[in-house]
Each structure stands twice: as C-alpha cells, then as structure tokens.
Amino acid sequence: MSSAPIRGLWAARVLRSAGATQRELSITKGDISSKSKRGGDAAEDSTHQRQRSSFLRSIDLSNPAAQRKLSKLIQEVVKTKANTGDFVPQVVIQSLCTTYRGMDIDEKKQFLLILAQDLHIDTAMALQSAAQFEQNMNNIKDARSGDVNWEHENVERYLRTFRNLRNALAPLYEVLTCATFFQQILSQRENGMLFLVHMRADLLQVLRKSATHSELPALRSLDASLKHFLASWFSVGFLKLQRVTYEHSPGQLLEKIIRYEAVHPVGTIAELKRRLGNGRRCFAFFHPSIPDEPLVFVHVALMHEIASSMQSIRDETEQLSEDSQAYAAIFYSISSTQKGLAGVDLGNFLIKEVAKALKTEHPHLKTFATLSPLPQFMLWLETQRYKTDESLVSPLELDALIDVLEERGNAIQSDATPVSIVLDTLSIDKWIKDPELVTSLKPIMLKLGARYIYHEKKRGKALDPVANFHVRNGAIFERINWQADLSKKGLAQSAGMMINYKYDLAHVEANNENYLLHNIIPIGLQPQQIGNVKSRWSWRKTRSMLAEKHSWHSTRTAMGQQPTEEELFQMISEVDEDMSGAIDFAEFLQVIDNQKDRAAMFEDDSDMIDAFVACGGKPDKSGFVRKETLVKIIKGDFGLTINIEEMINKLDVDGSGEIEFDEFKAILT
What are the Basic and acidic residues biased-composition ranges (predicted)? Predict the structure, then answer.
C-alpha cells in the first residue's frame, strides 16, 4: 500500500486542527501526492502555486484567534513527530516559511512569541518524567553510598527515565530546532539555512526594539536556543576560506563586498579594485549551504612594517613592487554580513585561518597585526565631560591647549572641565587643518585613548568592543596611532585615532587564557609609556604575570634595575599582608621604604634617585620634577586623597613648581 494516502490523512488532521477548510485540505493532499510521484519541474511549479493560496499564507497574526490556530498547528507538528517519526510534510514546512517571509516585523514578533511561549516545556510531561526518574533512581541507589548501583537489574529502566526527563525539560521549540521543524527547513527548503539566519536577525531586532519587559525572558531563551543551533552549523569545520579577487570572483560577490563593508566604506568600483589589487588581499568565509553569501570577510595589506594610518596602507601597498618585500600583514577591516549570526564567533577563526594561509603563501612574513577603529571612543569621552579628575587630562598639557585656543580668540568658560575643553576643541570646524591645535591635542588624545582601551572595563573585560574582540582572540594592545583615519567617520568616532593589535601567533593562546581568566590585557611599550602609569602597579603575584610588560619588572627595569623573578617575588611577599596578590600604592611605598632601608646600610640614595629619574629628574640629581607630574602620580594614578599640593608648596620655597632632588627626597620621606 502506498504511503502517500497515509501522509495525506496525517497532514489533513494537522491542518484541520488549525481550522483549515475542506478545499485547503484537498490541495494539501494533492500537494503531497504529487510530491510522492516526483512529477518533475511542472509538478514543482504547480505545488508552489497551490501553497501560495494555502491557509497559512492568508493567516492574520494580528488576530488572537489566528495566533491560537498557528500555535496549535506547530504543536501538532512537534507532537506528531514525537509519536510517528521524522516525517513532516513538506507542504507544512514550505507554507510556514512562505507565510513567515511575507510578514511585517510586528507579525513576525507574534510568530516568534508563539514559538517562545506556547512551545516552551510541557509542564505536565516534565513533572511526570521527574517523578518517574526519582522513583527509578531511588530503586537502584546503593543503600550505603547513595550512588547508582550499576549492577542493579533496573539500571536500564533508570537510564530510560533519565532520557525521558532530559527530553521533557527541553522546550518544544528546541525539539523543533534540533529534530524536525528547523531541521526540515534545512533539508526540504532551498536556502533553508539562510532562512533561519534571517529569522534570528528578526528575533534580535524584536529583542532590541519592541519586546516588552514580560516578553523578554521567553524571547531571550528562544534566541539562546537558535544561536546554539546555528553555532553548531557554522563551526570552523563547516566553513570554507576563499580569496576574493577583482579578476576571478563573480560580480555578484564583489557587489556584496562593497555593500557589506562596515569599517571603511567603498565608494566606487575603482576603490574596490585598489583594495583587491597590488599588496592587498581579501579573504572570506563561506558556508556550503549558503555558497553565494560571504559570512565574514577581512581586508589585508602587505607592508614592510605595522601600519600607522590608512594613508600609509594606501601609499605603501601601491609602491610595493613585489609581495616578497612585505614582512607584515595588516588586517585593516573585518566585516560580518549576517546580523542573524551575531555572537557566533566567525571573525576569530577568520583571522587565524588567514594568517596561516598568508604564512604558507609568504613564509617571509614576520608580523601579523591590525589597524583597528575605536568606534565608541567619542561616545565614552562624552560621558567624561563633567568629570574633574586630573588623571584624565594632564594640567600641563591642558595649559598648552588653552594657550593655543586663546591665541585664536576662543574663550574658555571659568567652570569648564578639562574634558569639556577637549571636546569643545574637537567640535571646532576643521580643527584637523590647524597644525598647532593638532599638536596640542595629540598627547591629550593619545593618553585618553590608551586609558579607554586599557582601563575602561565592562564586567572585567575591555569596554571597547573591537578591543575586546581582538584581546579575547589573543592579540596584544600594541600601539595607538594619531591622525590614522582622517575620514569623516574616523574623525567622528575617535578623532582619527586607530589601534594596532598585534597577533604573536606563538602566544595567542596564553594571551587568550590570561584575558579570559584574569582580565589581563597584554600591552605594548608605546601605550604603556603614554597611558596611565597606574597600570604598572596593578598586577598579580604569579610568575606568569611577572613576565608581563606592564608588570613591576618593567617599571624597575625602566628605572635602571634588573631584579630577578625571585627577588621580585620576595619584595612583594614582604609587603602583601592581605595576601591579595595585588600591589596597591601603600604597599608600593612600603617596598620603596624597604629598599631605602637596605640602601641606607650602604649610605646609598640609589632608590630615591631612581624614583626621581622616573618622574622626570636626572641621574646626577640635577634637573627637576614638575609639580603637576608628581601631583598626577600621587592623586591621579594612585588615587590618594592626601594634600600633596600643600606638602609641595611648603617645600617649594621659590614657588617655581619645579621640584629639585632635595625637595623631592623631603616630600617622599
């Protein structure tokens, strides 16, 4: 007996439960019969036309009654699958997908809410399964230990009830996701994977814009399930790395590269040709089920050294006569194309796979780094507008900026904060064309940028999303660049600054581990020198961290000393009374005092001289330390509330603001 009539009757029962008419049922059975006979292209077209007139096509989800019908239909699909096997009629899948695609965002929200709320766990089934599991578990437990007695005759029954409980605790939409509905979309519908990706993009939009407080929990749970499902299908093993070229890639793909470029927009075909031309590379990840859609792509420049600006990339790559002359690969733009894959980590795999491919193609490449934007820097700086913390802007550097502004007739309000003065300067039309303004802003902005990347955190991780992405992938915060992106977008986002994140392939795993476990951002020498000095005292008492560039070891080395790890560990242990493993300023001063006591035995001022030199003095005790510098270190970097200004004023008898060695020594002792 043919199975087609049975399948037709099953589909009829499902659709009748949703309130379909007799005419619609006859169409459904005809669809299934025609599919079972595999009648070719004409039958396919006929089936498609009949589906467009189906009950689901005309459903109005603004009507609560229609919502209930659709909910009942999908539940019948799930429950029937659980009872009868894997078959779900293609007409049901196709009709649901076709209906969904034709909805506006409000109707899609209702559809998603049906999945999220009506297809959550079956409470009665979960309670029944839990009771059966508990009963069987008690039957086979060892009386003494309470553990499972694996030799008991009812172990198999226990395991069966465990599986039943696990299945009962899974929301019905997870059954949809993993077993029938979504899986059938993949197998029965052309571009089924892309449909699911777009569905999640809709879900994220609903979560972001229109979901009410009471709707959020269920929708978030649905999103977590769909994200997990997609992540399993878009793991690196399924992805194909492909180079994009102007000469050989299809025109449709090149158009998508232009359309999806998110970091540095491509204005013309000529610009795209340049980005795919001499000294450049573009690679993209593709999925076999979406072969025409680049999921994420990266632009790379082959250069002599790490790029400091977008202009340097343009200039050097155009002058590069042979790729063999390049020793650095610079990733300067990474763009994801599918909003529905947000949170599915594709960029991490892409960078590492591209680095491997480039290393294979060009073994002479030594350095892999990015030239990355700070897309939210100016937004963050605006939040600091009314703060008076002197650690944000050095008084000396602020005075230099104010002098330039006043020369140009710009009045400074008496109650203006340092950051507000900086922000107002950046709002001056064509400030970037004024060399003196650019020069006076440079040290201020570089220091603010370094602080933003290194110190500003969200839940222990870098606040800047680009920094978090690269550091999480194992990169080093290598350098911050001034006047790196002078485009309108670059100036608006970060006053033109850009960051180099360096990928040392031998250390990316260790860097990744330190960041994930200890929130450590590995930092290069340049941002360490211009950034907030406080970072040098904030580290953990472990050997791995003693080796970090921003550790105490680096500070002592900068002062002309070369302590061993054992000596450092001993210094720390002597003062770390609370065993926190972190050195605060008071403990740092205690280390200095201990060193001074030891030096006093030899009538030696070496530690005091080292501190004097580190603050700006000279090794022969000549020169001076600026008052503003010492105040910043004591109050800004270490956050102390002592009246250091009064102490300085009492000792700085000539009122010069220049602290000589004897005065410096008196202040610290």
Answer: 32-48
Q: According to the model, what pLDDT value does residue 589 have?
A: 59
d(CA 26, CA 436): 81
Distance (Å) of CA 423 to CA 40, 400, 431, 434: 68, 15, 11, 16
Alpha-carbon Rg for the chain, nearest whole angstrom, is 33
C-alpha to C-alpha distance for 377 and 453, rounded to whole angstroms = 9
Assigned token pair, 477: 């915060």
Alpha helix (H) residue ranges in 55-191: 64-84, 90-101, 105-113, 123-140, 155-168, 172-178, 181-188
Rounded distance between C-alpha atoms, residue 632 and residue 630, angstroms: 5
Catalytic annotation, residues: 372, 470
pLDDT digits (tens, 9 = 90+) for 108-128: 999 899 888 888 888 888 999
Return d(Cα 613, Cα 632) in angstroms, integer: 16
For residues 58 and 37, the answer to whether their CB atoms sit within 8 Å is no
**DSSP string for 116-149:** IIITS--HHHHHHHHHHHHHHHHHHB-TTT-SB-
CB atoms within 10 A of CB 669: 8
Q: How far apart are CA 103 and CA 390, in angstroms?
A: 55
CB-neighbour burial class of residue 529 (10 A; exposed 0-12, middle 13-18, buried 19+):
exposed
Question: Hey, what are 212's tokens?
Answer: 């009410």
Give pTM, 2 decimals. Answer: 0.66
SS3 329: strand
Dist CA 547 CA 494 (whole Å): 32
Residue 252's CB is within 10 A of a number of other CB atoms, namely: 8
Nearest to 172 by CA among 79, 243, 260, 94: 79
Q: What are phi and psi of 300, to 5 degrees?
A: -130, 140
Q: What angle do CA 605, 611, 612 make, to 5 degrees?
A: 85
Q: Position of tokens 């509905």?
A: 181
Beta bridge partners of 300: 281, 331
